[in-house]
Amino acid sequence: KLSRRLEMIMELIPEHSRLADIGSDHALLPVAAVQSGRVVQAVAGEVNQGPFKAAAKQVAEAGLQGQIAVRRGDGLAVIEAGEVDVITIAGMGGSLIASILDNGLDKLRDVQLLIMQPNVGEDILRRWLMEHGWLLTSEKILEEDGKIYEILTAVPELEDERISSRMLYEEQEWPVSNGKGTFTVTSELLLRMGPWLLKEPTSVLRDKWNSELDKLHGILESLSASKQESAEVKSRQLKREIDQIKEVLTCLQ
Ligand code: SAM
Question: What span, in angstroms and rounded, lies between the C-alpha atoms of 93 and 122?
C-alpha cells in the first residue's frame, strides 16, 4: 500500500499521463499510478544500482514491464525529450531536485507538469522554478509518521500568463498581529514558507514552522555561546529571521 505522501503525489497526476518518476527507488509510485489507470506509460529512473534493481523487481512482479520502463541513469538522462508529460521527483532535497531539473533542461521542453516533494530546501527549489519559467501552481503539506512533507506542482509559464512566477513572490504588507500597522512579508519569506501554503494555512504548516523556530532558537543559543565576532553578526541575522517567522505565524492563527 502506498504511503499517504505518495498517494497524494499520485492524485496530482492527470489521467492518461505519460510519467517519469525520477529517483523512483522501489518504483512504488509508477506501479500504483499505472495500476490505477491514471498513467498509461511510465519511466522509473534510478541512479543507484540497489534501488534500480528493486524497481525492476517491483515492476516485474506487478507484470507491468510493458508499461513501465525501468532505466538506470542520472536524473533526466533516462528520458528522451518529448517522451513524457509529467515528471515526479520525490523524497530528495530541494537543491538536488533543482540540480536534476537544471541538468536536464533539454528534456523539459514538452513536459506539462512537474510534481516535486522536497524533503528540505524548498526555498531553493521555488527559486529555481521562478528563475527558469516554471509557474508554481499548488502547494500541499502533510504529516505522516511524525514527518512533515511539502508537495509542489509547477507548469511551464506562458508569456501572456496573468500571474507570473515573480508576482507570486512579490513583497506584501500584512496587518500585524496586534492590528496596529503592517509588516512586510518579503520575497525571501514567501520563497521559504510557500506563497500558496501561506494563503491557506493549515495546522500542519503552523506545526512545521513552530518546529523550525525551535531549531533556529537552538542555533541561536549555540551561537551566543561562541566568542567569535562572526557569531554576533550571524546571531543578529538569525534573530531577525526568527522575528519575521514569528510575526507570520501570529498572523496565521
Ligand atoms: N521517490 C521515492 C519516494 O519518494 O518514496 C524514493 C525516494 S528515495 C529517498 C531517493 C531516491 O533517489 C534514491 O533511491 C536515490 O538512489 C535516488 N536518486 C538520488 N539522486 C538521483 C539522481 N541524480 N538521479 C536519479 N535518482 C537519484
Answer: 8
ipTM: 0.99
pTM over 0.90: yes
Rounded to the nearest angstrom, the distance between the alpha carbon of 54 and the centre of ligand 1 is 12
Cα 46 to ligand 1 centroid, rounded to whole Å? 6
Match 516535486 to its residue by C-alpha cell: 116
Per-residue pLDDT at 117 exceeds 80: yes
- 192-209 per-position pLDDT tens digit: 999 999 999 999 999 999
Question: What does the alpha-carbon distance between residue 253 and residue 245 come to, in Å, rounded to a whole number?
Answer: 13
Which residue lies with its CA nearest to atom 7 of ligand 1? 91
What residue's CA is closest to ligand 1, atom 27? 23
Length of the chain counted residue by residue? 253
Pick the CATH number of 172-252 from 1.10.287.1890, 1.20.1730.10, 3.40.50.1100, 1.10.287.1260: 1.10.287.1890
Ligand 1 site, CB within 6 A:
6, 22-25, 45-48, 51, 74-75, 90-92, 96, 100
Bridge partner residues of 89 (DSSP):
22, 116
Domain boundaries, the chain: 4-160, 172-252
